[in-house]
Amino acid sequence: MKKYILFLLTICVGCQTTKISNEKYKVSTSTTELGSIGVAETKLNFENSFNTRSFPKLEGMVRLEIKTLPFNKQINDIYLNKTKVKQQEATINYVDSLPNKPEYVTVSILDVYSYIKELNADYNKENLTFLKNTNEGRIVNNLALILSDEIIAKIKSADAYYLINNQEKKYTVALYKNGKQFDSIDLHEGTTLAYSLGKFCWTENERHKWEIGDIIAENDNCLGTTSERVKKKEKVNLYKL
Asked: 10 Å Cβ neighbour count for 76?
C-alpha cells in the first residue's frame, strides 16, 4: 500500500514539472512574468502556484537568453492541458513521426548581476524591504512559452535580447541586431507552458547593509559569504558592558 501511494505521489509531482535544456521547470496555471517577484506555493493536489507580489523597476536593460526548441510529446501534452484549462481550441498540430516539429521558446535572465543591480538600487527600496522580511521571496527567471510564427521569426533575426521596462509595471523584450534595436516583443502575447524560479542570496555591503548578492536556482545553496537569510544583528546590552 505504501509503495502504491508513493507511486501516485511521484506521478502527481511529475505532472507538475518538466525538464527543458537540463533545467527543471514548474508547470502551472498561474500567470507568471519574467523578472517578477512573488511567493511560490504547492497546493495539496500538488499543483504549483506563484503569487506575484511586485514588478521591480528597471532603469537599465537586462540581457536575456532566448532559445527556440522543437516540440516533443511532453511539451505537447502540457500545451494541450493549457488549452483545456483556458477552454481554447488547440492551434498547434504536433505529430511525433513528422520531421518538422512546431517550435516553442525559452526566455531566461542571462545577465543576473544587471538584474541584481536594479533590485539593490534606491528606486526598488520597497521590493528590497519585502525580500528582506521574507525568506519565501522568489523571482521568475526562466519561462517556456508558445509564441506566434511571426514573433519567432523576429527572435531568430535578432542577435541580442534585453528585458526593458519602458512603462510602469510592464516589461517588454527589446530585439537587437548589430548593436541596434530594431523591434520589441510582448511576451504576454504568448501561452506560458512552464517557468522556473530563482531564490535570493544576501550579503553585507561596505556600509554593513544587507543587499542581494546573488540569485541561484531554487534548490541550490548560497555560496561563499552570501546567506539565504538576512542576519539580524544582536542588540548590545549596555548594562553588561
From this structure: 20
Residue type, 48: N
For residues 189 and 146, the answer to whether their CB atoms sit within 8 Å is no
Q: Residue 234 has which C-alpha cell?
A: 544582536
pLDDT tens per residue, range 125-146 = 999 999 998 888 999 999 999 9
Spatial CA neighbour of 67 closest among 143, 140, 16: 143
Backbone φ and ψ for 191, nearest 5 degrees, come out as -105, 115
Q: Which residue has the cell 514539472?
A: 17
Measured over the CA atoms of residue 213, residue 52, residue 60 and residue 143, the dihedral's sign is positive
This prediction's pTM: 0.85
Paired residues of 197 in beta bridges: 140
SS3 9: helix
Q: DSSP class of residue 231?
A: P
List the one residue out of 215, 239, 224, 229 whose CA is nearest residue 34.
Answer: 215
| Dist. CA 68–CA 179, nearest whole Å | 21
Q: What is the pLDDT of residues 29-39, one digit of tens each?
A: 777 899 999 99
Q: How confident is the model at residue 43 (pLDDT cuts 50, 70, 90)?
A: low
